[in-house]
Specification:
Layout (H helix, E strand, L loop, with lengths): L9 H14 L10 H15 L5 E3 L4 E3 L3 H25 L5 H27 L1 H20 L7 H29 L3 H45 L11 H21 L1 H28 L4 H52 L5 H13 L14 H18 L5
Antiparallel strand pairs: 1-2
Helix pairs in contact: 2-6, 3-4, 3-7, 4-7, 4-9, 5-8, 6-7, 6-10, 7-8, 7-10, 8-10, 9-10, 9-12, 10-11
Length: 400
C-alpha cells in the first residue's frame, strides 16, 4: 500500500495559531474590590456635591484630575447661595432679636464648616487615597489567607443611609415650605448647604466604620489563630507576625485619617451642638407659646423636630463610628499579648525579649482627636448631652 507523505510547514502552523489567539485573546477575569461595588452610588453622590475629588480607576480610588476645578465650582455656588440667604435674612422682620441673631449665626457657621470640608477634602485627597489603598491591600491579603471579608453589611448601611436621608430632608422641605411660606427653590437654596454638610459627616463616618470592620475582622482572625495554637486545631492559623503587620498597616491608615479630619471633626461637633441647642430651644418655645393657626403651628413644629433629628443623628453617627473603631483597634494588643504569653510559656527561650516586643501593641492606642482638644467617643457624647441639656434649661428661663 502506498502512503503519500506531505510536507509539514512548522512556520505556517505557528502563524495560524498565533493569528487565532490574537483574534480571540484570553479574557482574564479581574475580581472587583467589594467595597467599591458596595459604596459606588454613595461615592458618586458625595463627589457630585463636592466632598470627594476622587475617581474610580483600575479597581481603586485615585485623585480626580478635574477635582480642583470642580471643588472651586462647588465653593463658588455655595458662596452665591450663602449670599442669597443672608440678603434674604436682612429684609425679614422677626418679632424677637434673639431669633434674628441665632438664624444668621447658624447660616454663617454652617457655611464656614462647608468651606472647610470642601477645601479640606481637596487638600487631603492624596492621603485619603492612601488610606483606601491600605484597606484594599488588607482585604486582598486576608482573602489569600482564607479569611475574606463580607461586604453585605456595607451595602445595607449605604441603603439605610440613602433612605433615611431622603425621608428626613424630604419632610424638612415639605414642612418648611408650609411653615415659612416659601417656594421650593427658596427652601432648597437654604437647606442645600446643610444637606452637603450632612453627607460630609456620612463620608467620614463611613470610612471610619470600614476601618473598624477590618479591625474587628483582624481581631477574630487573631483569636482563632490563638485558639489554633492549642492541641486541638479548629481553624487555619495565621502567623503572629502577619497579624502584627496587618494591624500596623490599619493603625497607620487610621492615624492618617484622624490627622486629616482633626479640624473638620471639631468644626462638626461645634456646629452640630450649636444647631441642636438652638432648634430645641425654639421648638419648645414655639410649641408652648405660639398663637398661630393649627396647620402652621404643627408644620413648624414638625419641621424643627426633624432638624433636631438630623443634627442628633449626625452627632450620634460620628461618636459611634469613632468609638467603635477605636475600641476594635485597641483590643488587638491584649489578644496578641496573651497569644505570645501562651506561646513563650511552653518555651522559656528568649522569654523576656518576646514579651517586651509585644508591649508596644498595648501601648499604641488609637483615638480620634478633635484638633487635639478631646477624643471623640461615646463617653464624650454623654458629657455633651449633659452639658447641652443644662444649657438648654438655662436658655428656657428667658422668654424668646
Amino acid at each position: 500500500m502506498h502512503v503519500s507523505r506531505g510536507v509539514f510547514d512548522v512556520e505556517s502552523a505557528v502563524r495560524k495559531l498565533s493569528s487565532r489567539f490574537r483574534r480571540h485573546p484570553a479574557q482574564v477575569s479581574r475580581l472587583e474590590w467589594p467595597v467599591i461595588s458596595a459604596v459606588r452610588s454613595l461615592f458618586y453622590f458625595i463627589r457630585f456635591i463636592g466632598h470627594a475629588p476622587l475617581e474610580i480607576r483600575d479597581d481603586r480610588f485615585e485623585p480626580w484630575s478635574y477635582g480642583v476645578f470642580y471643588s472651586i465650582l462647588c465653593c463658588t455656588l455655595h458662596t452665591y447661595f450663602f449670599y442669597i440667604v443672608l440678603r434674604k435674612f436682612t429684609v425679614i422682620e422677626r418679632n424677637t432679636p434673639i431669633l434674628d441673631v441665632t438664624e444668621t449665626a447658624k447660616v454663617i457657621s454652617n457655611y464656614s464648616v462647608l468651606m472647610l470640608n470642601i477645601l479640606g477634602s481637596l487638600w487631603t485627597r492624596k492621603q485619603l487615597v492612601e488610606v483606601t489603598n491600605i484597606m484594599k491591600q488588607f482585604d486582598t491579603r486576608m482573602r489569600y489567607l482564607g479569611y475574606p471579608l463580607e461586604e453585605r453589611y456595607v451595602k445595607v448601611w449605604v441603603f439605610f443611609t440613602f433612605v433615611f436621608s431622603f425621608i428626613a430632608w424630604a419632610v424638612i422641605v415639605e414642612t418648611g415650605i408650609v411653615a415659612f411660606r416659601e417656594t421650593f427653590i427658596e427652601n432648597m437654596i437654604y437647606i442645600l448647604g446643610y444637606v452637603t454638610n450632612s453627607f460630609s459627616t456620612i463620608k467620614f463616618s463611613g470610612i471610619v466604620l470600614l476601618l473598624g470592620q477590618r479591625f474587628r475582622h483582624l481581631n477574630e482572625v487573631a483569636q482563632r489563630s490563638k485558639d489554633s495554637s492549642m492541641p486541638v486545631q479548629k481553624y487555619p492559623a495565621v502567623d503572629f507576625r502577619v497579624i502584627h503587620q496587618l494591624h500596623n498597616s490599619l493603625m497607620n491608615a487610621s492615624e492618617s485619617l484622624s490627622s486629616q479630619y482633626s479640624w473638620p471633626l471639631l468644626a462638626w461637633l461645634i456646629s452640630l451642638c450649636g444647631h441642636s441647642v438652638a432648634n430645641l430651644y425654639f421648638l419648645i418655645d414655639w410649641l408652648v407659646s405660639t398663637t398661630e393657626s393649627v396647620n402652621t403651628r404643627w408644620s413648624l413644629v414638625a419641621c424643627i423636630a426633624w432638624w433636631v433629628v438630623v443634627f442628633g443623628s449626625q452627632l450620634l453617627l460620628l461618636h459611634i463610628a469613632c468609638h467603635y473603631t477605636s475600641s476594635e483597634a485597641n483590643n488587638i494588643g491584649s489578644i496578641l499579648f496573651d497569644w505570645k504569653s501562651f506561646a513563650v510559656s511552653r518555651s522559656y527561650k528568649f522569654f523576656s525579649q518576646r514579651i517586651e516586643s509585644s508591649l508596644h501593641l498595648i501601648n499604641r492606642r488609637l483615638n480620634f482627636s478633635a484638633a487635639g482638644c478631646f477624643h471623640v467617643n461615646l463617653p464624650l457624647l454623654r458629657s455633651i448631652t449633659a452639658l447641652l441639656t443644662t444649657y438648654l434649661v438655662l436658655l428656657l428661663q428667658f422668654q424668646a
